[in-house]
Amino acid sequence: MNPVNRIFCIGKNYADHVTELAHLGYAPDGECVIFMKPVSALVEEGTPIALPKGRGAIHHEAELVVQLTGGGRDIPLAEALDCVAGITLGLDLTLRDLQTELKNKGKPWELAKAFDGSAPLGDVQPYLNQDLQKLEFTCHVNGKLRQHGRTADMLYPVAQQIHILSQTWALEPGDLIYTGTPKGVGPLEAGDEIVLESRGIGRFAWRCV
Asked: Are 187 and 21 in contact (CB under 8 A)?
């Protein structure tokens, strides 16, 4: 796989996740929500996740992640999956209290989403033309099921995400897309073990410190 170039993230891509956060003022708005993380956010599988201290609740968000071969600008929807090089699972770690505060003030989310270590990433596996909209994945914390995602439930399928991103950025080899999280997000604490797993992709584990 190519070295990681950029990390694109898709927010509010599962209706059930939007519903579970409705009490915090989150709601579907009919538009694809996009934000980015720096490469310093990545945490390899097996490397401890250093949770920020004194920043309020930090939530796990388990996601299918795809890595691209490139593709450039304005990729047609019908050709979008030709740009996928690999797939894996990852975590979009979120400082939830801070995110809610920023959202309520109409400010960007970077402080809550793009901090160092906020994007644990499993080993990327070659994309073998699997149907990316028929995958399932789970997230367990300390052996208890927290999230069970079905990519068929995405509001914006992977091909559409690639098409949308390419309208603004020239997609390059190594670019990652965190494709959104289903319901079940919850807090992490030091000492927790978090495991992501999907048949055909793999099992990836981290310990929080």
From this structure: no
